[in-house]
Amino acid sequence: MAALKGRNLLSLADLTADEMQHLLTTAAKIKSGEINPQCPQKILGLVFKKASTRTRVSFTAAMYKLGGQVIDLNANLTQIGRGEPTADTARVLDRYLDVLAIRTFAQTEVEEFAHHADIPILNALTDLEHPCQILADLQTVQEEFDQLAGLTMTYLGDGNNVAHSLILGCALVGMNVRVATPAGYEPDEAIVKKAKSIAGDRSEVMVTPDPKAAIEGAHALYTDVWASMGQEDLAETRIPVFEPYQINESALAIADKSAIVLHCLPAHRGEEITEGVMEGKQSRIWNEAENRMHAQQALLAAVLGAA
Ligand code: CP
Ligand code: NVA
User: Fold this and answer.
1) What is the pLDDT of residues 192-218, one digit of tens each?
2) Which CATH architecture has domain 131-288?
3) Which ligand is nearest to the CA of 288?
4) Which of 44, 180, 236, 242 is the Cys-Cys partner for 63 at CB 3.0 to 4.6 Å?
């Protein structure tokens, strides 16, 4: 799709519904082997200021499958770790690389990179959003149900970065999205408002403290850790607050019979999800993790003008 060439992905709200559908279709075709876009001699840079297994490795594998190269710009081995201004780093990396994926804390930092660089900047997770994760999640739902519009996605737990991108992504594809969080841990109001305006009258965006109301009849149950990277010191005190929001066997029993279970990983078994549900027959968590690679291969190919 020509419209995606050269574009950033900082928030899922950067995409139109058609662009999102194009990425999901491309990812599915790449996975099935129907297409094999190539970006020879293109170079992807990775700036990761937080730990990562899936995102780092799936981006790297995806770029290799496209015939490109990857440079891992470990912050501690570059001047990034010594505090060189983002504006300077961005303008220099722009001259060497063709695309840059960044995992950091502040959303404003990826925005600043995008402002100072002409190459596509991809958000590989910030405190506000995790758009690449949700591409893979929606691909996983699509391959299970062969549709997205009209289905219901329920997210239980912390109104965090993953929840934010999920709310926006579901609104874009016409899925109903229900988010159940304890009071005080709701998703960002501006994101919910944006999702409602994207969804219009096609689908519902619900935020509730009531997990049962959110789960009843849902086609996908989704959760994430109760304390994200950077919040480790809050983890213990959050456990009793979040306990009613665990995805366990009784939660799954009130979802639709066909419901699947998703988790972006890494998971804390016994906290946000039980071992039994994670390893149970309704879990699609491992396919979801695999789809990170296909979805990002589609994204890289699109922003590099090859798909
Ligand atoms: N889900 C996800 O982004 O995992 P990593 O933190 O391992 O990249
Ligand atoms: N919300 C989690 C997601 C990890 C992939 C975090 O930010 O740590």
Assistant:
1) 999 999 999 999 999 999 999 999 999
2) 3-Layer(aba) Sandwich (3.40)
3) 1
4) 44
